[in-house]
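Field: COMPLEX_INPUT
Field: COMPONENT_COUNT = two
Field: RESIDUE_TOTAL = 596
Field: MODE = joint
Values follow.
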Amino acid sequence: MTLALQQDGTATRKAKRSNLSSARLRAAWLFLAPMMIALAAVAGWPLLRTIWLGFTDANLTDLSQSQFIGFENYLSYYDGEAYGVLVDAEWWNAVWNTLWFSVISVGLETLFGLLIALILNAEFKGRGLVRAAVLIPWAIPTIVSAKMWGWMLHDQFGVINEILLGVGILSEPVAWTADPSTAMWAVIMVDVWKTTPFMALLTLAALQMLPGDIYEAARVDGINPIRVFFKVTLPLIRPAIIVAVIFRSLDALRVFDLIYVLTSSSTSTMSMSVYARQQLVDFQEVGYGSAAATLLFIVIALLTTITVVAGGLKSGEGEQS
Amino acid sequence: MNRQMKSILFYTLVVVVVIFSVFPFYYAIVTSFRSGQELFNPSVFPTSFTTGNYFSIFKEQPFGLNILNSVIVATSVVILSLIIAVTASYALARIHFRGRGLLLMTILSVSMFPQVAILSGMYELIRSMGLYNSLPGLIIPNTVLTLPFTVWVLTTFMKELPKELEEAAVVDGASPLTIVRRIFLPLMWPAMVTTGLLAFIGAWNEFLFALTFTLSNEVRTVPVAIALMSGATEYELPWGNIMAASVLVTVPIVVLVLVFQRKIVAGLTAGAVKG
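Field: COMPLEX_OUTPUT
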């Protein structure tokens, strides 16, 4: 089709076209330049430096005095004993904590998000008010929500203990954020509280794009609504939910603020980001901390690449039409 | 199950959801008006109304300055990233060039960066520019943190505008900069407001850089100031002050979000679902 059209046009028109488009191409790169320079200088360069510092014995007191030590921060042997991030039990504990946190909280958020989206998709009185109320946790800064929940979960004066003791669920106060057996659940609960609105909104947007006539047909045929949900609704909104889950998972894997403020540096909740920062800043071991940060980067980069490539293939098909 | 039962069940669920969403913020407000011994009364209802905490956060520490810092940092980040992003997103959305898909994917990947991965490199950069413990030292990293997201959302919005808009202008020989200024900028205002708002909230809430690149209380932003508020001893956190400060900085954001509800939802969906 396009070929036929092009042959139709005269030579001058073609020349004008290509002139125009080459001017537009130049403009495109000119327009992109500020962004690319900014990203290269303030994101790309620090990333490369972090990776480099991971191969040195840099210390926070004087970064310029660092020496190249190869993979020693990652793995090294002294007198038959292994040292380095890769054999550090605390690092693997942080990896495990991060994965556990990500899987459970994103799973719960997806579930509750779907539930809230279904509620908001129904017609009822006061829907606008409910939607506004649901949006509030999302608007509250993470640090503030960590502090608010920290106070509510306080072992002596917290309102949660007060309520649970009052109704008889607890027989004695629990130190939610300090007790290793409950600390991670406290973190997960606050994260679920804070991020479910995001999931609910994205799911709701997908629900509202569904064609109404399918439901009309199902209703006329007298099919059980629960069956309609699993056979029609869920398959149709699945792509949107998957995208939301991917975004949230990548976000959850780098979790820092919430854990840092709610449970500080307790080992029972320490995430990969908290571990890396502790090494970098608190212990001043820039080399070692950079190695840990690089490992976290590799994990997330791999997951992102897989996602983007898988998603890119799909949207590439879409662009053909 | 009959109709009535169903609707009772439904409304119970709605009430539970609303209480769970709103209660923590409500309780923070209630606590912020309690001081002294009253603070240790864990009643869920407002039992006292003293405004002392709201005054003491400004007296005991430079919280006014912290708010000003946050406003300066977040506003600068929004302005800088919108300026850089609007031309970039025009190129990405409206001009076909080789490598565009790859560039878009790179931008999306950068927005997934774990912040901690650039922490030590950024620390070194900030130090070498002499910006450690200063506001520009927070504005620069935060702008770059926000930029990929801003570009991505604006590109999505710009792609949706009809093609005919610029065709006439292109044929008439208008330069791309004129096209952006005269045709797209006026149409992009709503999208820019949405994106700017989301970028503002992001910068207002940023914690890791603000915590690591500042040293003195006078240059700290609000989240760091709240996180580091301490009492006479390590075990005696000034909960009244913390809650007052939290409420004070959260109310404007909550109002903004509720006022711009629809725009924010549109921006979030443009950033995620269509990605």
